Amino acid sequence: MQHKQILASGLAAALALGFVAQAQADDKAPKEKCYGIAKAGQNDCSNISGSHSCAGQAKADNAADDWKFVAKGSCKSAGGLSADEAKAKLKTKK
Length: 94
Description:
The protein is α+β, with helices and mostly antiparallel strands and 94 residues long. It has 2 helices and 2 strands, in the order H-E-E-H. It has a two-stranded antiparallel ribbon with strand order 1-2.
C-alpha cells in the first residue's frame, strides 16, 4: 500500500512541475499594455491620468486610462487601446 502512495506522490509532483514550467513559459511570452480592458480593482499598475499609482486601484470597469498586460498582439481583439489611443480618448473627454 505504501508503495502505491509513494508512486502517486511522485506522479503528482511530476505533473505539478510540468504546470509550473508552463506557467513560467507563459510569463516569458512577449506582452503589451492594453488600455481600457481592466475591470475595477484589476489593473496592472498606475494609470495614464495619474489618479493612482498602483495595481488594483482602478475604480471603474474598462476605464481608458487603466491597463492590463496581455499577450502581444491580442489587445485589439480584446477591445483594448494602445497608449496613444487611450491618451487621445482621454483628451476628447475633457
